[in-house]
Amino acid sequence: MEPLSTEEINWLAQRTIEHNFQSGDTVYVPGDASEVVHLLLAGRIRLYGMVEEQELTFDVIQAGTLLGVASLMERTQNEYAQALEPSRVGLLSLNTFWHLMRQNPEVNARLVKLLGDRLRLSRSRMTDIALKEVPARLAGLILDLIQSEGVVTREGHYKILTHYTHEQLATMIGAKRVAVTRAFGKLQDAGCVRLWRRQIYVVDLATLRRLAMAS
Predict the structure, then answer these.
(1) Whole-model pTM?
(2) 132-212: which CATH number, 3.30.470.20, 3.50.50.60, 1.10.10.10, 1.20.810.10?
(3) Are 102 and 62 in contact (CB under 8 A)?
(4) What does DSSP say about strands 150-152 and 87-92: parallel, antiparallel, or unpaired?
(5) From CA 8, how far away is CA 107, in angstroms rounded?
(6) DSSP-assigned states of every residue in 9-53
(7) CATH class as words, domain 6-129
(8) Runs of H (alpha helix) within 80-190
(9) What is the mean pLDDT of each run of 10 residues along the chain (215 residues)?
C-alpha cells in the first residue's frame, strides 16, 4: 500500500497506542493482526510467512503504511511482521480503521490496490520458486526492488536504497543464503549488477531483465 498522506498519518497517529521495536523484534504473529491494524510511523517492517518450513518474505513496508490489513481482510493466518530497523508502530482499533475506510474513499481504493498487488506478487514469487532457478529469481526480485525503492544515480544506473543482506534476499525468493551468494556472483559476472558499500546497483537493465526471464 502506498504511504498515507501526512494529514492521514497525523489523524491516525492521534488514535493509536504507540509501541517501539528494535531491529529484529517481532511486531506481530499470525492471529494478532486479526484484532487490530498497525500503522508504521517510522522505520521498516518485513512481512513474511512460512512455506514448507522456510521463511518467504511477502513485502518490506515503509513508514506511513498500514500493516495487518491483508490478514484482516483475507483472514489469513500466515503473516508475521518483523522490524528491520528501530521502528515506531501505532496500534489502531478496528472501529477507528473502519471509520477511516468509510470517511476516506481514497484510502479505501489504495487498500483494494494493496490487496491486489500483494496477491499478484505472492503468486508471482511462488511461480518463480516452482519454475525458475535461483539466478532468475534473484534477477526478478532486483527488478521488483527497483520499482519499489530504486533511484537513478548520476551515471544513469539504478541503486536500491535498502542495504539487504544475502540472508534477507534469500527469504524473498525462497532460497538458501549460499545459493543467493552464488546467484549474485553470476549476475555480477554477466555485468548487470554490482555491489558497492553494501548496496545493489543495476548497471545493465536489459541484461537483468533477460536473466529474470530465464528458466
Answers:
(1) 0.72
(2) 1.10.10.10
(3) no
(4) unpaired
(5) 9
(6) HHHHHTTSEEEEE-TT-EEE-TTGGGT-EEEEEESEEEEEEEETT
(7) mainly beta
(8) 94-103, 105-131, 134-149, 166-173, 177-189
(9) 68 86 92 76 88 79 78 63 93 81 76 70 72 92 90 93 91 92 96 92 96 85
